[in-house]
Design goal:
homodimer, about 200 residues, Hypothetical protein af1432, binds calcium ion, metal-binding (chains A, B), metal ion binding (chains A, B), HD_domain (chains A, B)
Chain lengths: ~200, ~200
């Protein structure tokens, strides 16, 4: 191939295939296996399309979709850090920054900057689009846990108060989704999926 | 939950989790297992972001991304039809239409219509965005086959002339990507991954 630019782009698209082998703590809804980051990212894009009306500030759905599509690519090198793993969170930012440098720089410079920009925006959680994207990313595993009888909550001894504490920011970003999360947590306590 | 609209939306998001269990003919790039439709759809969204500059007509990337994100959901009911399976193609349209009715209508009516509209646009391949989305969907398995030593070509005895015949529309939609496909097919013949 003579086109050097296309060569880099294809190399990047080949490299990110590895995201399909980065497994998360959550199970698929049918409970048969752990979910991987690529299919999780796809699911978040669908959530963005379906749940955007609940954002308390007007958001740009297309921009949210782009962010959720790229947000986990760094985990190809940095691995998935479980949201309640305090130790893992200590060096998460550093590991992911290094991963972003290696992975996104496979692309031509202009595109590396564009995609790194989307990832940084997501990580900083400052813009209203990034906040909404992050709310979906936090909400998705809660729904998966609910429908798999609390699988990863039970496996890691996560308590309901921790889920509420860790995710309370959603109450500002999308109040109705926060209400929904509270409802399914209450139901999860009643059903014995999680302790209060 | 009292919010009937949100209830339908969550039910839909739960139902489409099944796309993660619809497996395709292509292997992951590392050859370890078959790819599923959810991670394939994510990969196409990344391809749209990275390769849009090769579209011969000006396209709306965000619209292309939305289309590729939803385009395979019907396969939850209809299954994946291998692109060189002539028998499977006979009733593909009918099976997928029925699937679209059941799956998208889990959503509130306005959203069912919106997402059905994206799916229909993709299927009809008439708009320039749909043509480009379709070109990516055709190109992705060719790249996967190339990097997995022609796995599904060999498994099904697919010949190079069939790949070219079946996908020649890409020459108009994205000439440089078509050139790339021709290059890797030629290399695949030389390496014994596929017969001419
Ligand atoms: Ca398909």
């Amino acid at each position: 191939m003579e086109n050097e630019r296309l060569k880099k782009q294809i190399e990047f698209l080949k490299e990110i295939d590895k995201l399909k082998q980065v497994f998360r703590q959550t199970l698929l809804m049918d409970g048969t296996r752990h979910e991987n980051d690529a299919e999780h990212s796809w699911h978040l894009a669908m959530m963005a399309m379906v749940l955007s009306e609940y954002a308390s500030e007007k958001i740009d759905i297309s921009h949210v979709i782009k962010m959720v599509i790229v947000h986990d690519i760094v985990e190809i090198d940095a691995g998935d850090t479980f949201v309640y793993d305090e130790k893992g969170y200590e060096d998460k930012a550093e590991r992911e920054k290094k991963a972003a440098e290696r992975l996104f720089n496979i692309l031509p410079e202009d595109q590396a900057n564009e995609i790194k920009g989307l990832w940084e925006e997501f990580e900083e959680r400052k813009t209203k689009d990034a906040k909404f994207a992050s709310a979906l990313d936090r909400m998705q595993p809660i729904i998966h846990n609910y429908y798999t009888n609390g699988h990863s909550w039970r496996e890691h001894g996560v308590k309901s108060y921790q889920v509420l504490e860790r995710n309370k920011i959603i109450s500002e970003i999308a109040p109705e989704l926060w209400q929904f999360i509270n409802d399914i947590l209450e139901d999860s306590i009643n059903k014995g999926y999680i302790e209060r």
